Amino acid sequence: MKNVTDSFVSLVHWRSAGSFGFNTDILATNLINLSVVLGVLIFFGKGVLSDLLDNRKQRILNTIRNSEELRGGAIEQLEKARARLRKVEIEADQFRVNGYSDIEREKLNLINSTYKTLEQLENYKNETIHFEQERAINQVRQQVFREALRGALGTLNSCLNNALHLRTISANIGMFGAMKEITD
Q1: pLDDT tens over the chain, length 184 residues
Q2: Considering its fold, how many domains does the chain have in total?
Q3: pTM of the predicted model over 0.70
Q4: What CA–CA distance (Å, rounded) separates 144 from 47?
Q5: Residues spanned by the domain of 141
Q6: Three-class SS of the chain
Q7: Is residue 75 part of a domain?
Q8: Does residue 143 sit within a domain?
Q9: Are 28 and 127 in contact (CB under 8 A)?
């Protein structure tokens, strides 16, 4: 409670001093600092984030297209397998007396291998999409953090100069002197 009272005392002191300076009370300035940092992040990061997301979206769409092409190839293989199955069925009718069980076994193996291939391709497509999404999210996070940090450092470097730094030091010394007089 004393910190809150001290921050109000320092605000009153600043109004009477008639100058601008930095409040070094961390608890009183966190909300202001946080809003400034968030404003800088939003201002500098929204264009970069939009571009990154658009690029990432295109990559994901390309990956999906490639997966769909793979799926199309698997469907072609399935059609070939079905044609082969029909051929095997015709042969099975001709050789039913001699080897019906062997032909039936080959047919089942062919169907099972085709479905396994399709299932593997579908799993690969899903894993690829999930991996690309996770990688895109991580890249966007890293890029936003870098841009925000770069923007914040640029803003700080452009705002601080020797005259402002000396004026801030003088104001802080004056504030500490006034606080010492109040406490004495």
Answers
A1: 455 455 444 544 445 455 666 666 666 667 777 888 888 888 887 888 788 889 999 999 999 999 889 888 889 998 998 899 888 888 877 777 666 677 778 888 989 998 999 899 899 989 999 999 999 999 999 999 899 888 877 776 777 677 777 887 888 898 888 887 877 6
A2: 1
A3: no
A4: 10
A5: 32-152
A6: CHHHHHHHHHHHHHHHHCCCCCCCCHHHHHHHHHHHHHHHHHHHHHHHHHHHHHHHHHHHHHHHHHHHHHHHHHHHHHHHHHHHHHHHHHHHHHCHHHHHHHHHHHHHHHHHHHHHHHHHHHHHHHHHHHHHHHHHHHHHHHHHHHHHHHHHHHHHHHHCCHHHHHHHHHHHHHHHHHHHHHHC
A7: yes
A8: yes
A9: no
Token pair in block for residue 168? 């801030």
Which tokens is 20 given? 């601008």
Q: How many Cβ atoms from other residues are within 10 Å of residue 9's Cβ?
A: 14
